[in-house]
Amino acid sequence: MIAGCSSQYRYHPTHSVGQGPYATEVTDNLYRVHYKILHNSPDEAEALALDHSRLLTQRMQFDWFVIVQRYLVIEELVNSKTNRIQRTECSQDKCQQSNYSNPQFKNQFKPSEPALTTEVILHIRMGKGLRPDGIKSYNATSSF
């Protein structure tokens, strides 16, 4: 985890619970940025992940970033007695489904709310100076 992000960190990826941003450094200018929300809204999760990527790019003193890989993960409690979660992960127009058990998952929701999360994972490469031609890039100083 990046120290600059710790004050906003509420998402616990090892427990698959919580919400908010999470980022890990892969190399000096390549990061994996997660943003997880506790409802079904891929567009909202994407916008929050992009904004967090922008802030991270600024914090790391880069000028711009490009998205190398994008994932969308939807998790939903399908059986509260067995704590079975259905996970759907999509990338590049391909989706895979799997199931797992997590007794803590349902505890993050009110009983009246659907137990469902949306997570966007962006692999971003940061750069300085001229932005690349032929690929969509995002300015670190501009809001989306």
Describe what this molecule looks like in 3D.
12% of the residues lie in helices and 44% in strands. With 144 residues, the protein is mainly β. It has one domain (3-129). Strands 1, 2, 3, 4, 5, 6 and 7 form a 7-stranded antiparallel β-sheet that branches. A hairpin with a 2-residue loop joins strand 1 and strand 2. The longest helix has 18 residues, at 42-59. Residues 1-10 have low confidence and may be disordered.
Write down the domain tally. Answer: 1
Q: Can you tell me the overall shape?
A: elongated
Mean pLDDT over the residues: 88
> Helix/strand/pairing class, anyone?
mainly beta
Question: What share of residues is helical?
Answer: 10-25%
> How much of the sequence is in beta strands?
35-45%
Report, as a whole number of angstroms, the end-to-end distance.
24 Å
Total helical elements: 1
Number of strands: 7
Descriptive keywords:
144 residues, mainly beta, seven-stranded antiparallel beta sheet, 1 helix, 7 strands, 12% helix, elongated, disordered N terminus
Brief overview:
With 144 residues, the protein is mainly beta. The protein is 12% helix and 44% strand.
Write the layout of secondary structure elements.
Layout: E1 20-27, E2 30-37, H1 42-59, E3 64-79, E4 84-91, E5 94-101, E6 116-127, E7 137-139
